[in-house]
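We give its fold:
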Amino acid sequence: MLLKIIILNFNIIQKIVSKIFIVILILLAVFAIPVGLTTGIANISYDSVFTLFNNNSNPTAHLVFYQIRLPRMLLAFMVGASLGISGAVFQGLLINPLADSYTTGIASGSAFGASVAILLGLGGYFLPLFAIIGAIITLLAVMILSAKSGGFEPRNLILSGIVVGAILSAGLSLIKSISGDSLGALIFWLLGSFSGRSWTEVLILSPYFILGTALILLHIKELDLLAFGSEQASALGVNVKRTRYILIISSALLSATSVAVSGIIGFVGLVAPHIIRSVFGATHKVVLPLSFFFGGLILLWADILVRALSFAGEIPVGVITSLIGGPFFCILLMRKLR
């Protein structure tokens, strides 16, 4: 009887907390538009936001809104959403709350590929292409190493990702040492930033963003079944190998192209899904879309904070996410070790 009362009270509290959390997300999304459009070096009032569709009202504000801040905000949300949903997939697929595109080495691979493109003086559409190639090579290396270490299982994949990621980190250090005059730009890019990004980067990311997100959302049910283990999922009609390949490749695609347009931005893919799971439970039909939305909002507001502090020189947004996500990761790690 006492146990039933405790469970009932816990369920009621969880429902209240989840509703409050949804309200907070909606408010963050609503206020992000006027705050994001008016925050930055150019001093533009909130009144100007309501006259955006009138080109003659304030030409300067119109230019700043449409050509600088709006694409930057959209790109920040898209990158955050990509990292959030891919992190949720990695955590669900590998059955580990510490897993994301960085702990599995995929982000390091895409960063290495994009860094090679920068070193060669290539930009535009070559950057995501090199990032994807780097991610694919890394993914193949992780899978081969995992297979040689005892099979394509969650623990082997994570350990293999850590090993390959460490090797790629050494490769990135080598690139930095031989980059010469482009060292400053390369380091700033590696720290993660949306400074100077425009509609070009939004267009570059969009097809990969849509394709990767769609493939993941089409396999929500299979991802839930995989949480019971390979044998149980197979018995329930899931093609385990095919589903894992699709989900990992889709998540790698989102991570790689995000790195290509923004640089390395850590912890969003780790923090967003974990908080969503803590509030709403582990069902992926809830976790995936909310991790997508929450990840986008985290990075959008982090970039707004960066622009608000731009009087001291723009801080890379990756530094802000690391300052927030680092302690969170330590707490999460200690909880898991216990």
